[in-house]
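Duplicate of #3305? Posting structure anyway:
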């Protein structure tokens, strides 16, 4: 069905591939991590600078528009028509641990053979490039759109989504939207996301510091703990550190300083991750020289940080669309001696938002909910859903490729009639450098984008745009 069209698209890619990658590399130079806001830059100067750069690049490619009045998002338009197809990408990124990077510094992106390396090269600065070139591919292939394309450029997707909330208040929703910030073939729905702060009852007596993490949605991979010094406890924890690669201990004056590490995973897919707070808490629980009060509190923290499915918290559930609820600890802090353990909980239809909150506060009466937004599910037999699924099935040569419901949270949950898709087509061969566990994926050190899989993904997204355009025109 698409064979002749994709041949034309391949011609365009052969001519413009380096240009496509340069868009990503240029945007990935900006350290667009959330900072304290200022007037015109509500999420900090780096986020605003990257947003401005993305807007300027899109203008150079024929899009019109600009940044919102408060500086929180960009909105760029292409073409005309009575109806609108939305494309939603974001220019902000998650925090980094620069010391863990092997091949480059996080904001010194580079190409290494068939991959790009740098923070944000996939998540989600590739989404900006894909939005530009999907439109370009359709034009080159002779499939001009009958409806308007509106590209949203966010700058707070990773740490709150206040950008998309502002968009939803200020603009008419697109008739159908594609969000290139997930996986293929296509996502029909997303779990609800609850971010809860579990306040442990009581105060530490000997532990003076217990902190780590900067984002809810990244499994905690670094924890710093300080404890009042005593010889017996120091010897006990040093013995444990000898046999535990995730644990380090040293004496610093009248303190024992413990550093725990882990293997970070996205909160939506915790399998295979190692939580640093769980590592440290379990080790200290087995040290008799630490007071019982602190060991009992650490046992609770170990349960919260190490139980990825909410079983010990009493919130575990499962459903046919989304599978298991997941619960991931991303941030730990100590407030006047009281531990504050932040959880990112992803839940499907097996529990309501209100019931989830009720169970959390029943188990931890002092807990508070930072945010809680239910998910959504589009029926599998929805006309547009079926057409997007078909595009991927044909290009991949896999007639059995099926869409899915996912645990990740994208802008789609704030829209109507929205579908999330990927930025790397896994069926395409792509040489990839060897990376240790915990490296290479979105939100991890040495984040990579597989170039050959990316340009194939742009073709898929272009044809999905075409299918949306057809559906709106009928």
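Output from current build:
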């Amino acid at each position: 069905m698409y064979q002749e069209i994709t041949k034309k698209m391949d011609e365009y890619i052969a001519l413009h591939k380096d240009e496509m990658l340069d868009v990503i590399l240029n945007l990935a130079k900006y350290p667009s991590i959330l900072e304290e806001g200022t007037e015109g830059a509500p999420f900090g100067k780096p986020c605003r600078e990257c947003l401005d750069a993305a807007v300027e690049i899109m203008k150079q490619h024929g899009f019109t528009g600009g940044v919102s009045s408060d500086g929180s998002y960009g909105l760029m338009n292409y073409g005309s028509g009575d109806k609108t197809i939305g494309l939603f990408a974001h220019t902000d990124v998650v925090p980094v641990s620069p010391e863990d990077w092997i091949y480059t510094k996080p904001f010194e992106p580079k190409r290494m053979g068939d991959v790009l390396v740098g923070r944000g090269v996939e998540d989600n600065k590739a989404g900006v490039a894909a939005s530009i070139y999907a439109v370009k591919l359709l034009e080159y292939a002779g499939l001009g759109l009958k409806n308007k394309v509106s590209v949203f450029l966010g700058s707070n997707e990773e740490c709150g989504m206040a950008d998309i909330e502002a968009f939803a208040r200020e603009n008419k929703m697109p008739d159908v939207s594609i969000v290139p910030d997930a996986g293929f073939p296509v996502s029909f729905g997303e779990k609800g996301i609850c971010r809860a702060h579990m306040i442990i009852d009581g105060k530490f007596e000997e532990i003076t510091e217990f902190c780590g993490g900067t984002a809810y949605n990244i499994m905690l991979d670094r924890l710093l703990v300080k404890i009042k010094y005593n010889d017996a406890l120091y010897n006990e924890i040093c013995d444990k550190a000898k046999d535990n690669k995730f644990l380090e201990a040293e004496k610093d004056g009248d303190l024992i300083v413990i550093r725990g590490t882990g293997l970070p995973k996205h909160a939506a897919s915790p399998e295979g991750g190692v939580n640093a707070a769980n590592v440290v808490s379990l080790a200290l629980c087995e040290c008799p020289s630490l007071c019982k009060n602190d060991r009992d509190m650490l046992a609770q923290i170990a349960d919260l940080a190490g139980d990825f499915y909410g079983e010990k918290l009493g919130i575990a559930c499962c459903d046919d669309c989304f599978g298991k609820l997941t619960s991931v600890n991303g941030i730990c802090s100590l407030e006047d001696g009281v531990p504050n353990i932040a959880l990112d909980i992803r839940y499907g239809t097996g529990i309501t938002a209100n019931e989830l909150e009720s169970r959390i506060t029943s188990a931890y009466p002092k807990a508070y909910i930072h945010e809680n937004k239910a998910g959504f599910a589009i029926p599998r037999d929805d006309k547009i859903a079926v057409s997007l699924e078909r595009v991927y099935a044909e290009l991949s040569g896999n007639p059995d490729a099926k869409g899915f419901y996912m645990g990740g949270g994208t802008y789609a949950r704030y829209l109507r009639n929205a579908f999330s898709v990927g930025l790397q087509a896994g069926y395409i061969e792509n040489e990839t450098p060897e990376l240790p566990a915990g490296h290479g994926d979105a939100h991890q050190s040495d984040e990579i984008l597989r170039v050959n899989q990316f340009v194939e993904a742009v073709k898929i997204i272009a044809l999905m745009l075409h299918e949306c355009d057809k559906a709106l025109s009928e």
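Confirmed duplicate; merging threads. The first strand starts at residue 64 and ends at 67. The domain at 193-373 is CATH 3.30.70.360 (Alpha-Beta Plaits).
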